[in-house]
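ok trying again, last paste got cut off:
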Amino acid sequence: MLKTNRTVTPADDAFWPAYIQAVLASSSAQQEVLTQAERDVLAERRRQVDVEGWTAEHDDERDPGVLVSAAAAYLLYAADTLHPFSQGDGRFSNKPPICWPFDRSWWKPESPRIALKKGIALALAEMDRIDRDPGDESGHSHLNGGDL
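nice, full thing came through this time. structure:
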């Protein structure tokens, strides 16, 4: 169980972030808690930062919504490939969806699973960007897991 100086319950706002950190602190616990897909998404986000250089500072220079627009493009590619009647005509592998905010040369969906991994990692990057700017125009607190 989570060790703290006071008793916390799952109803307390402080419980879940501390609990998740405590669980993830153990690498063996991390392997038991996270699915392969979850580990792959977190590894992709880490790759985006470490290899591509898309750091928090870099992401903060982007306009709000740019990262999630890129995420949406990858998710549309996956949806269209897996279920052709979902959103498009199956040609997003050749040309990105209109919501793709970057140069076409950066469009690299490869496969539905890889596109899902990239898209979800980009959505996480957008969420982190929002959380770093608690005074944005939404007027809501994003700190400690707050919602928009």
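cool. The chain has six helices and no strands. The chain has a mean pLDDT of 79.
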